[in-house]
From TrEMBL:
Main location: membrane
GO biological process: siderophore transmembrane transport
Organism ancestry: Bacteria, Pseudomonadati, Bacteroidota, Sphingobacteriia, Sphingobacteriales
One cellular component (GO) term of this entry: cell outer membrane
Protein name: TonB-linked SusC/RagA family outer membrane protein
Length: 1007
């Protein structure tokens, strides 16, 4: 027995010794191989090509100049794969250099696309999944990825309503599916939801993003159930690859200016306005004129003028610096990056800084287990007092900026007190800070590597935790003419936990391919906030740092808890790469709903037919490379309400009884509803994917229709109930539309290429029902048969002229009309202008939009030109409207004219405060075509880069929002424009900010 045991250990030791010796021999033979990958037709370097050692887990990717480095022994087979190119295998010889030219592939459909809880080959996708072009994700000076997507994906409408540094654009996918709920898409980053954690797309550094997919149709989004009714954006960040460590630096710096300058009237023209206003109102000017106000007199006498827009505006700057480190071994890979983004706004005080850190890791501790992280930290800083652009545009050039003691005047046009000094709040020092700490991880077991019969069976556990605190501290004292002092400290935080159990199984039997995905997930979000306000301070020394010194103090606090539970199953079936079916069902439960309807079920079905793989298409192979028909139908949901909204809650109050103050409870005005159900959106989608002539022409055409019912609306209640309103399931909304994407490779030569990408989308939104009685809701401007957002107003037909008033033309039409007033159509013919003459004039959402991208490449030089267009939108124009009596009391844009008895304008009204007594909103077309961005880049040839010790070097210059063609009078048809506020602080209009144009120079380097 002892001898047998000894022999066993002797043999085991010998086997182990041989294995170690063999391994060391292989390691000794593995040497560093370098090379460069190019396009066989054009000779252009290919970035992002995956290079792997066949039969191992050793992989890497090519840099911007097509270069790569990998460890491989002589005789090993290197496999080169890239989207749009045929796979190529090369046996490593004795040399250390491996240069490879890849041929364009006729089968781009083998590309893997992220579809939610996994990925699929593009040829097997049955739903509507759009991939954002990778060139949009680099070489663009953007703060968040949505700005790069804008206009580049069909029927993804991204509206940059604010260019304030750090603001996030609004996004809609295929129209408005709700009348009261949020309409933004659901954003998922590396499998963990970002939406509904209080996180922002600004938290995700664009330099860290590898790919972006957008799920649009009901079949694609149904896998996210209640979260998918407004589309889903899936973001995948970069991960490490095996090989020697690579350091990448990406940075740019540039300047910003207004994309369009809204110049005010000249001093001479303003004096004419003052004179005309004095004539109309029969008032006298200060000291007999020509200025209107006391504080203007001295400057006028001395010939001193101030350019107030120049006083509040400045040349903005923008910069970004990112350093990434990636690499790893066969069993451990990492990607780490640090990033700084800084922006000094074009309006003083609008500054923004972001600091971020990301660590993505993947480890294979055993052959059947993989674990990893996708963790990041982001810090946002928006500190500083801000100037007010709206107030600056209203200032007279003769207005007084400073008092004799050097302090800013409160009202520069005193005795006019409608407009405060636009620089007042630059003297304050508010803090606006926000953080996002997200620690996400996963563990995946491959049961096939444990027991061969279980091949294809995997279990993945995703865990996510996000902690998002934010705070705002501010103080207003003597510098803003608050003589009592007012301070505020606001703190809020949310903590979100996500846990997902995902089971997948893949099996191929002959020509049949199956895969199953099962999900069981739970999520919890806890939110709390506290606010302390103090008034009447003894001095301004400590500002908000000592609220306890205030004589009057108020403290409020609140908290809530949200929980959800979800189950999902998806089955994909494919036969012979010709016929594909997808069945999905998801069940979601959320704490926001009452006990009778906690859960909702959301099913979907989709089918696809790869027609080009049929035998009868064999004769078209030289022409048709891809022809696929897709059809899908599904249901998704929307929570639409906040926590505790289905409950009848009570407020506490103090009640005087018996000479004492007693606590009393009373119901809130919102009545509970135990039977409230989910909003549900059912939709149909059909699409055709095609590729022609070696994929020289390729694209997608899709038609869709969605119907949302059981919408969540607050219904008014009779007063006798004791409640004001209740959440109820009412109303229906429908959307129909078309998406078109077309890509062409117009010229493909050895040293020159020209490609074009076109996207077009049209969406028609319609309210089908509101309250079930077939009646419109005039107060909310909701009209059955029309879009959710409309302009409902009078019809302007001109300006009343003096001879018309003298001839009595206005009699039996508009008895109150006077010369210079807006002439409105009496549409109902009742002889008066009233609400019966209002009509729907247009919709606020665009009827269609599109994008055109042309890319020209000559050797290592590339030029990319992108044009965006938005058509069919109508908006009320506050610059033209304004307050009825303000035009003669303030400066205004030079483009804005006015009626006088001499010029007899039929477009512009007079300066009289009775020139628009009916409150006409002056709607204008908000359509525009914009030269969105132009980028010129140059990649340093690999031999030159190698000589200076670099792996890849790309330099580029880029300009954004370079020119806009539009008839809109204002800063920009997209930009937010809030009329003057009616408080001293003018908080609302302080968020107005022009669209910006920027020019940057950038550098991407791989070491």
């Amino acid at each position: 027995m002892l001898e047998q045991t000894t022999n066993f250990f002797r043999k085991a030791f010998f086997a182990l010794f041989c294995a170690v010796l063999c391994t060391l021999s292989v390691m000794a033979q593995s040497v560093e191989r370098r090379g460069r990958i190019t396009d066989a037709a054009t000779g252009q370097a290919l970035q992002g090509v995956t290079v792997s050692v066949k039969g191992s887990r050793v992989t890497t990717q090519t840099a911007g100049d097509g270069s790569f480095t990998i460890d491989a022994p002589q005789g090993a087979v290197l496999v080169f794969t890239s989207v749009g190119y045929a796979v190529r295998e090369v046996t490593v010889g004795a040399g250390n250099t491996v240069d490879v030219a890849l041929d364009a592939s006729d089968n781009v459909l083998d590309e893997l696309v992220v579809v939610g809880y996994g990925s699929q080959r593009r040829s097997d996708i049955t739903g509507s999944v759009a991939s954002v072009p990778k060139e949009r994700l680099s070489k663009l000076p953007v703060n968040n990825v949505l700005q790069a997507i804008q206009g580049a994906v069909a029927n993804v409408n991204i509206n940059q309503t604010s260019s304030i540094p750090g603001d996030v654009p609004s996004t809609q996918v295929r129209g408005l599916n709700s009348m009261s709920a949020g309409t933004g898409p659901y954003i998922v980053v590396d499998g963990i939801p970002l939406t509904r954690t209080d996180g922002s797309i600004n938290d995700i550094n664009p330099n860290d993003i590898e790919s972006v997919e957008i799920l649009k149709d009901p079949s694609a989004v149904a896998i996210y159930g209640v979260n998918g009714s407004n589309g889903v954006i899936l973001i995948t960040t970069k991960r490490g690859t095996s090989g020697i460590p690579q350091i990448r630096y990406s940075g740019y710096a540039g300047v910003e200016e207004p994309a369009r300058m809204l110049d005010p009237v000249s001093p001479e023209e303003l004096l004419k306005r003052y004179a005309e206003y004095a004539r109309i109102t029969n008032t006298t000017l200060f000291n007999g004129g020509p200025v209107r106000n006391e504080y203007e007199w001295d400057n006028y006498q001395n010939g001193v003028t101030t350019d107030w827009l120049d006083a509040v505006m400045q040349t903005g700057t923008i910069q970004n610096h990112n350093v990434g480190l990636s690499g790893g071994s066969e069993n451990a890979k990492y990607y780490v990056s640090v990033d700084y983004f800084g922006q000094k706004g074009i309006v003083k005080g609008f500054d923004y800084k972001r600091y971020s850190f990301r660590a993505n890791t993947d480890f294979d501790p055993t052959k059947y287990l993989t674990v990893g992280t996708s963790a990041f930290v982001a810090a946002h800083d928006r500190d500083g007092g801000r100037a007010n652009l709206t107030q600056a545009l209203a200032m007279s050039p003769y207005a007084r900026m400073y008092n004799e003691d050097g302090s800013l005047t409160q009202f520069p046009m005193y005795s006019e007190q409608l407009w405060a000094n636009p620089l007042l709040h630059t003297t304050t020092n508010p803090e606006r800070r926000e953080f996002n700490v997200s620690l996400n991880g996963y563990a995946e077991m491959n049961f096939g590597n444990i027991w061969q019969p279980l091949e294809g069976l995997k279990f993945r556990l995703n865990g996510g935790y996000s902690y998002i605190p934010r705070r705002t501290n501010e103080y207003h004292g003597l510098s803003v003419y608050n003589f009592n002092g007012w301070g505020r400290i606001y703190n809020a935080e949310s903590q979100t936990y996500t846990l997902e159990n995902i089971l997948t199984y893949e099996k191929t039997i002959g020509r049949h391919r199956f895969d199953f995905t099962g999900l069981y997930a739970a999520r919890s979000k806890y939110w709390q906030q506290s606010e302390a306000i103090g008034e009447m301070f003894p001095n301004d020394v400590l500002e908000w740092g000592n609220l306890g010194a205030a004589s009057n103090q108020r403290v409020t606090a609140g908290a809530d808890l949200y929980r959800s539970l979800s189950q999902m199953a998806r089955i994909n079936y494919g036969y012979d790469s010709r016929y594909m079916l997808t069945f999905t069902v998801r069940r979601d439960g959320a704490s926001v709903f009452a006990k009778n309807n906690k859960y909702g079920v959301f099913p979907s079905v989709a089918a696809a037919w790869n027609i080009h793989n049929e035998s009868f298409m064999a004769g078209t192979k030289n022409v048709i490379d891809n022809l696929k028909l897709r059809v899908s139908y599904g249901v998704s949901g929307n929570e639409a309400i906040g926590v505790y909204q289905t409950l009848s809650l009570m407020n506490s109050n103090s009640l005087a009884m018996g000479g004492l103050s007693n606590a009393a409870l009373r119901y809130r005005t919102l009545m509970g509803n135990d039977d409230l159900r989910w909003e549900k959106t059912a939709g149909f989608n059909t699409g055709v994917d095609f590729g022609l002539w070696g994929n020289r022409v390729s694209g997608t055409v899709e038609f869709y229709r969605t119907n949302t019912q059981d919408m969540l609306l607050r219904q008014r209640l009779p007063q006798l109930t004791g409640f004001a309103d209740v959440w109820a399931n009412l109303g229906k909304v429908a959307n129909t539309g078309v998406d078109v994407t077309l890509n062409t490779r117009n010229i493909v030569k050895e040293n020159f290429s020209w490609s074009t990408a076109i996207v077009f989308s049209h969406n028609k939104n319609k309210i089908v029902d509101i309250y079930g009685d077939g009646r419109d809701d005039l107060g909310n401007r909701w009209f059955i048969g029309h879009p959710v957002g409309v302009i409902y107003d009078y019809t302007k037909v001109g300006i009343w002229q003096e001879d018309e008033i003298a001839a009595g033309v206005n009699k039996g039409w508009d008895e109150q009309a006077e010369a210079g007033a807006v002439k409105l159509a009496d549409l109902n013919g009742d002889g008066v202008i009233n609400d019966g003459d209002r009509r729907i004039l247009g919709q606020t959402a665009p009827k269609w939009n599109g994008g055109l991208t042309n890319t020209f490449t000559y050797k290592n030089l590339s030029l990319n030109i992108f044009i965006q267009t938005v058509q069919g939108a109508l908006r009320n124009n506050p610059q033209i409207g304004g307050a009825a009596d303000e035009l003669g009391r303030r400066s205004a844009p030079a483009e804005l004219g006015y009626w006088t008895p001499e010029n007899r304008s039929n477009e512009w009204r007079s300066l009289s405060n009775r020139s628009n007594i009916y409150g006409y909103g002056f709607p204008q077309s908000a359509s525009f075509t914009r030269l969105k961005d132009v980028t010129l880049s140059y990649t340093l040839p690999s031999p030159i880069a190698s000589k200076i010790g670099l792996g890849a070097v790309t330099l580029y210059a880029s300009g954004r929002n370079l020119y806009t063609w539009t008839g809109w009078l204002g800063w920009d048809p997209e930009a937010r424009d809030i009329p003057r506020g009616h408080t001293q602080d003018n908080v609302g209009d302080n968020t107005n900010y022009p669209m910006v144009r920027n020019y940057v120079f950038g550098l991407n380097v791989t070491f």
